[in-house]
Design brief:
The complex is a heterodimer of chains A (324) and B (462).
Chain A: E1 5-8, E2 13-16, E3 19-25, E4 28-35, H1 38-45, E5 58-60, E6 64-66, H2 72-75, H3 89-97, H4 101-109, H5 113-122, H6 125-134, H7 137-146, H8 149-156, H9 161-170, H10 173-183, H11 190-193, E7 200-202, H12 207-217, E8 226-230, E9 238-243, H13 244-249, H14 256-259, H15 273-283, E10 287-291, E11 297-302, H16 303-310, H17 313-318
Parallel strand pairs in A: 7-8
Antiparallel strand pairs in A: 1-2, 1-6, 3-4, 4-5, 8-9, 10-11
Helix pairs in contact in A: 3-5, 4-6, 5-7, 8-10, 15-16
Chain B: E1 10-11, H1 23-28, E2 32-36, E3 39-43, H2 52-59, H3 62-70, H4 73-86, H5 91-115, H6 119-161, H7 165-181, H8 185-196, H9 201-208, H10 213-221, H11 229-242, H12 245-257, H13 269-295, H14 305-309, H15 313-316, H16 320-351, H17 365-382, H18 389-415, H19 418-421, H20 428-457
Antiparallel strand pairs in B: 1-2, 2-3
The chains are: A alpha+beta (324), B mainly alpha (462).
């Protein structure tokens, strides 16, 4: 551990164990702290003992995660503190960007699958690929399944084709199909930036029923601001849109059709994404639906996708993902 | 994908429904058919990886930059001095170390891809604090010396243009510092690279100078030894300037920064090979061109950049010094940026502090502090009055050569570490070349140092 790379979770940074503090406990030595300061280096160089009572720059070992630089160490049963799971995904992704990619893959495997998926979503495209390819296959499938379909498609679209096919064939049917549907569109099209994880409700439903039907669906942590009203029968033509607020505030016995907004601004999947981005920003809406040839709902372009199309490249990398 | 090379489960798409595509999408929409759950699906999202010449051009990067930066002020001074003093007699060294350079650079790129970490980072973790501080000290001394050389080169180029170095050197230092810290460096780097293309004038000059090609071939393949201290001195200088420690650092760090993962490493090695061969071919023609002009004319000492520029006279005539100055400026600026960066990476890796050009002073004080320090101290030292320019340049390269075995030892130990490298561990052939290089350089350095010491002690007459 001495001289190795460690994650200091109290300060949320990757650093180096310049010195270690061992406590004696019943004839055994127990690692209880790591010193990451430059003083520790000087102390070791001049072979001085640790003096003074000030232990403020000693970090409690329980809040330190020691990574071995080997993703397989996780399955092999190496011991970890796993306190990292209490950090938000953005912070974990930030840490993962500051360490070598094998360490980052190891870090990701320490996380529960949903958190790993959320963390993968916010990583930069390059780091995402490096890390994903190093993950254990079973774990990778589970993480991919839990990612937002548009972000998963972004990532799969960059994988080697054989590898992409391998994973797409191993995903559960529903989530695999959502990703495949998105992969049908070229990257430089509206279809290439939209998400198809949308909430729909049949037009003729009563609001009260709609509310109870949607309750389960709304538990998923995805972007839900608009609910799209579609026809009961295939091809499930898009008929209108209602906001979550409308759904909550309307009377139970009204139908969806009565309160929805039928005047829709819709995009076509092969439109230019930049133009779509400007249209969405100009409309001052949070999302625009994307419809196919027969008026069927294919997905939505959300405001963060639109901003990503319009904003300068340097800004995109730092933009938080707010809506999906 | 064509039918013959398509992987299993993929077949080319014969007909595409493009009716709904807007015009600009027609060109880009590459599609392929993938077999998913037994159904064939047409996907347009995948970008076909570039193939043919473009694929190989895209791979060229760190290796080419590191090697081009190797033909810097110190390099030109050493190659020119060699050509002027010994004619074609030392070309064999260049032939031998082209292979060495390619192998060493490739090993570093491989280390970077297999571990995702820089050289000093690995040394610290594998060999501990003491060794990593030693390695850092060595690199710091060697690199600082070269940074001074680069600013000397910039100053010399300025004087060839007829501008005062007192003006140009500080401006160049501030410019380099600003460009790297405030981010438009990636773009500027290409300009410096293009400027070094001027050195293509050397092959042309070498041909136009009508050297005796028979002699050149003899010099290249039949080692001709001189019982002469200067011969040894220049030999170590050639080793030091061609296989410079900073090039290994840079190659590894930038392979890591480019995000090359171990699964995709295969084709990347071409970059290291092409860079090494390309830059050494230019170096060899520098020696030939100088030998065929200055050495033949009886001038065996090079005192200034203006002397060295005369080797380009067969191709450029009176414009030789201007042409030389452009190349010297480009190469020195390129190396003047690469070197402080590589050093800053090394220092922060040893201390385990954040590093990277994308951060800022507040988040990475050690990285930016050492980067800034080395640039400005280097520029300042280069302005010292009465510094014997060419001697300094050559001596720094000799120092680099003398320190090289230590760095190589670390690299060779690391690249043979099964736990670290996995499937990318050194093969026996690489080890033969790697250890061969190590032995060659160590022997040369020991003999040179030994003879220097014996001279000082008065055992060998001066």
């Amino acid at each position: 551990v001495l001289d190795a790379l460690i994650l200091d979770l109290q300060n949320r940074r990757a650093t180096r164990a310049n010195d270690l503090w061992l406590d004696q406990e019943g004839g055994q030595l127990r690692l209880s702290g790591a010193d990451t300061s430059a003083r520790a280096i000087l102390r070791r160089l001049f072979r001085r003992p640790y003096r003074g009572k000030d232990r403020s720059y000693l970090y409690d070992w329980r809040y330190v995660e020691f990574l071995r630089g080997d993703p397989e160490a996780v399955e092999a049963g190496a011991r970890y503190h796993r306190r990292i799971v209490h950090l938000p995904p953005g912070e974990i992704a930030h840490l993962a960007a500051a360490i070598p990619y094998l360490h980052a893959a190891e870090l990701l495997e320490l996380l529960p699958e949903q958190l790993a998926a959320d963390t993968l979503e916010v990583m930069s495209a390059e780091r995402q690929l490096q890390v994903f390819e190093e993950l254990d296959e079973v774990f990778a499938v589970k993480a991919l399944e839990r990612m937002a379909p548009d972000l998963a498609a972004d990532m799969v679209g960059h994988l080697d084709i054989e590898l992409a096919q391998y994973y797409l064939n191993r995903l559960p049917k529903a989530s695999g199909q959502r990703i495949v549907d998105l992969l049908k569109y070229p990257a430089n099209s509206v279809g290439g930036i939209m998400t198809n994880d949308v909430v729909t409700v049949p037009v003729h439903l009563k609001i009260g029923t709609a509310r109870s039907v949607l309750r389960e669906r709304l538990k998923a942590p995805d972007f839900v601001y608009f609910i799209y009203a579609v026809e009961d029968q295939a091809p499930h033509k898009l008929r209108g849109v209602l906001s979550l607020r409308q759904l909550l505030t309307s009377e139970d016995d009204q139908t969806v059709e009565e309160i929805m907004n039928p005047y829709l601004l819709a995009l076509s999947p092969f439109d230019s994404p930049t133009e779509a981005g400007y249209r969405l920003l100009n409309s001052q809406l949070a999302a625009l639906p994307v419809v196919g040839k027969e008026g069927e709902l294919l997905g939505t372009v959300t405001i963060d996708d639109a901003v990503a199309q319009v904003a300068p490249r340097s800004w995109r990398a730092q933009a938080p993902r707010v809506f999906s | 994908l064509n039918k013959n090379s398509a992987p299993q489960g993929l077949e080319p798409v014969e007909e595409l429904d493009l009716s709904r595509l807007t015009s600009h999408l027609h060109k880009h929409a590459a599609s392929l058919r993938l077999n998913i759950r037994g159904r064939s699906v047409t996907l347009r999202r995948f970008q076909r990886p570039p193939s043919g010449l473009l694929k190989w051009l895209l791979i060229l990067g760190p290796g080419l930059i590191a090697s081009s930066a190797g033909n810097d002020a110190g390099g030109i001074a050493t190659y020119s001095s060699t050509g002027a003093r010994f004619g074609y007699d030392l070309i064999w060294v260049m032939v031998v170390i082209t292979i060495s350079l390619a192998v060493v650079q490739e090993m570093c790129a491989r280390l970077g891809a297999a571990t995702g970490r820089g050289l000093l980072d690995l040394i610290r973790e594998r060999f501990g604090l003491g060794w990593s501080l030693l390695a850092m000290g060595i690199l710091f001394i060697a690199n600082s010396g070269i940074v001074v050389s680069e600013f000397l080169g910039i100053g010399a180029a300025a004087q060839l243009f007829g501008i005062s170095k007192w003006l140009v050197v500080p401006v160049a230092a501030i410019l380099l510092w600003y460009l790297i810290i405030f981010g438009s460096y990636a773009w500027v780097e290409k300009i410096f690279l293009v400027m070094t293309l001027v050195f293509f004038a050397y092959p042309v000059a070498a041909i136009l100078a009508r050297p005796d090609w028979g002699e050149v071939a003899k010099g290249a393949f039949l080692p001709r030894l001189h019982p002469d201290q200067e011969y040894l001195f220049l030999l170590v200088g050639l080793l030091g300037t061609t296989i410079t420690p900073f090039m290994q650092l840079f190659q590894q760090s930038s392979t890591v920064e480019r995000g090359v993962a171990r699964r995709h490493y295969g084709p990347e090695k071409v970059d290291a090979y092409v860079g090494a061969i390309f830059s050494n071919l230019i170096s060899i023609t520098m020696i030939i061109a100088t030998a065929a002009t200055l050495h033949r004319a009886g001038q065996t000492q090079i005192e200034s950049a203006a002397d060295a520029a005369r080797a380009l006279e067969p191709v450029a005539g009176h414009a030789a010094s201007t042409l030389f100055a452009v190349g010297l400026l480009g190469a020195s600026m390129l190396a003047g940026a690469v070197l402080p960066l590589a050093t800053a990476y090394a220092v922060s890796e040893v201390f385990g502090t954040p590093k990277g050009v994308s951060l800022d002073f507040r988040r990475a004080p050690i990285f930016f502090g050492s980067f800034t320090g080395i640039i400005f101290v280097g520029a300042l030292l280069s302005l010292m009055p009465k510094l014997p320019v060419i001697q300094w340049l050559v001596t720094v390269q000799v120092l680099n050569g003398a320190l090289l075995p230590i760095v190589l030892l670390f690299i060779l130990r690391l690249v043979n570490d099964q736990k670290l490298m996995g499937g990318l561990k050194n093969t026996p052939v690489y080890n033969i070349f790697g250890w061969g290089t190590f032995i060659l350089i160590t022997v040369a350095v020991v003999i040179m140092l030994g003879s220097q010491i014996l001279t000082v002690l008065g055992v060998i007459p001066r």
